[in-house]
Amino acid sequence: MTAPAAGPVLEVRDLEVAFDTRHGRLRAIDGVSFAIHPGEILGVVGESGAGKSLTGAAVIGLLEPPGRIVGGEIRLAGRRIDDLPPAQMRALRGREIGAIFQDPLTSLNPLLRIGDQIVETIRTHLPMSDREARAKALELLVAVGIPAAETRIDHYPHQFSGGMRQRVVIALALCAGPKLIIADEPTTALDVSIQAQITGLLKRLCREHRTAVMLVTHDMGVIAETADRVAVMYAGRVVEIGPVDEVIHRPRHPYSVGLMASIPSVRHRAASLRQIDGSMPRLDSMPTGCAFHPRCPRCLPRCTSERPALEPAGIARAACFVAAEAPAHA
Amino acid sequence: MIVFLLKRLANAALVMVAVALLAFLIFRFLGDPVELMLNEQASQAQRDALRIRLGLDRGVVWQFLTFLGNAVQGDFGISYRNQQDVFQLIGERMPATLELVLVATVLSLVIGMPLGVYTAIRRNAPVAQALQFVSVVGVSLPSFAVGILLILAFSVTLGWLPGFGRGQVVQLGWWSTGFLTPSGRSALVLPSITLSLFQITLVMRLVRAEMLEVLRTDFIRFARARGLRDRTVHFRHALQNCLMPVITITGLQIGNLIAFALVTETVFQWPGMGFLFIQAVTHVDIPVMAAYLLVVSFIFVSLNTVVDLLYAVVDPRLRSDVVRGGAGGG
Ligand SMILES: Nc1ncnc2c1ncn2[C@@H]1O[C@H](COP(=O)(O)OP(=O)(O)OP(=O)(O)O)[C@@H](O)[C@H]1O
Ligand SMILES: [Mg+2]
What we know:
The complex is a heterodimer.
Chain A: E1 10-21, E2 24-36, E3 41-45, H1 52-60, E4 67-76, E5 79-80, H2 86-92, E6 97-100, H3 104-107, H4 114-125, H5 130-143, H6 149-152, H7 162-174, E7 180-184, H8 192-209, E8 212-216, H9 220-226, E9 229-234, E10 237-243, H10 244-249, H11 254-261, E11 311-313, E12 316-318, H12 321-325
Parallel strand pairs in A: 3-8, 3-9, 6-7, 7-8
Antiparallel strand pairs in A: 1-2, 1-4, 4-5, 9-10, 10-12, 11-12
Helix pairs in contact in A: 4-5, 5-7, 7-8
Chain B: H1 2-29, H2 33-37, H3 44-53, H4 60-72, H5 86-121, H6 126-140, H7 143-157, E1 170-172, E2 175-177, H8 182-215, H9 218-225, H10 230-267, H11 273-282, H12 286-314
Antiparallel strand pairs in B: 1-2
The structure holds adenosine-5'-triphosphate (ATP) and magnesium ion.
Magnesium ion binds near residues 52, 53 and 184 of chain A.
């Protein structure tokens, strides 16, 4: 069950996700590759529609039809999981890959006590009696910082605030000891004053358990404080990936440059990433060559016809002909 | 909870008084009871004596209050037709109607709910689509036509099941039941199917629509992300969240079923309240009509109230004793 110590927990290679529609195939994820190592937090940023959530959904096997994986592979601790039969994939979810969604107010079943929801998840995956599972649930609630957990365990979701509910969701994601957590904008729906607490908690727990995390967010502040590495996505592709300091302070790809420049200072959170002129192309009208070239301030002739691959650029990697030649600085 | 209960009861009482007023007005103004009770040769003295005996010489308000007071004590007067106590008459007929309605309701839930769940989770399967189509037919067929067709097929042609009456009944105190004898049970089959057919399709379509709605919610997606088994997701999480409207509609429909049983009872010569009412109408037996109106409304209003109270039991959010808001903070 355990991964070879050196290998990545998650390895995504040339992933392609497409929607078959009446007007042909729309490729929403087009050749995405990245890896996450044990205990590492990979931040994923990019403007709305870049394909961040779809990538996460593909990894946990919860793409909604007609969306499906049409190319590439996904490996969890070396084992290929993108072609598993549904029943095996189901057993993997919650057990080896936990998930945290955006809205804690709607993530929990309103009719079941939170304790029962944790117990049912534990017992689905681990051979435990009801009593043992309940003891573990209690332990988890304490670990995620629910005060008076012994009484709160029997409360219903509506009796908790948003921040407390997201703590419960984190407990649910962690309860079977997964190797990987997919956290899709876990703090976006929360009050600003609580966001830092939740990301801090997530970071601490994942460090303790050496859980790998794919953290999707719009908040560069969260990335700066939480992530080890960051992947910048644009139009269904990873355009830059590298250590978080490097990408924030010395972005190579012109899109990343624009993205980082749109933040006044990493210390002062600016949630919006949409301050680059123009907008992302629609899936049914992707430009040839580099998808960013119509908006790119440093576009070369070859950018309109050839698609750049993700190549080393400094200590990061960027998919850009310009970046490969002369490093750009923000 | 107590306040809620008292409020609901006060509401119900108010509605009942309004219905009583209506029943009273029918009683008072739909033909002169004196004329109806005596024959043409009665003398003026006899008429006056009866008028005084019935209290018809007093004021309208006094008459209404007397009517109300009597009704509360179960005294609806004497049937014009066979000089029997009306309350007793209805009491004798009520078990037949209630047993019929009970069986029809159970049938509609036992058949309708699984069909609804099935058509929702396998909505593209041919069988599910065929069921959808059949249910449209079920909704639009009038129940007397269904009844007559069933009688033709199963009693006249095949001779399998009785087409009229209640079979042999057993007296349990004042309640007469058809459940305890073979002939009583077989007599129930055709009328209860006739009565429940519409109800089955209603429950099925309702459950299907609700399930489709609930299956799209975040907490179902999160339940899948936790790796719960399909069966758990569908029946524990999704179906449970559909039960509120099903309880409401079923509860309210019991009132409708009692009212609509009138048609079924007439077709099957079923000795219930509806059949009694139809006979009363043909003989302008006003006390029976007024009493039927009151009794059926009473059942209707009680069901409404019970349904409201059941809401509070199913949905923890409505239980005021646990609603303490987001105590604990973020
Ligand atoms: N059912 C669908 N049919 C066609 N296209 C779809 C469908 N679902 C998603 N897409 C497309 O897939 C692309 C990626 O969507 P995704 O939800 O992954 O974006 P995102 O990066 O998570 O954005 P956000 O920041 O808004 O959450 C979008 O362009 C979207 O239009
Ligand atoms: Mg998203």
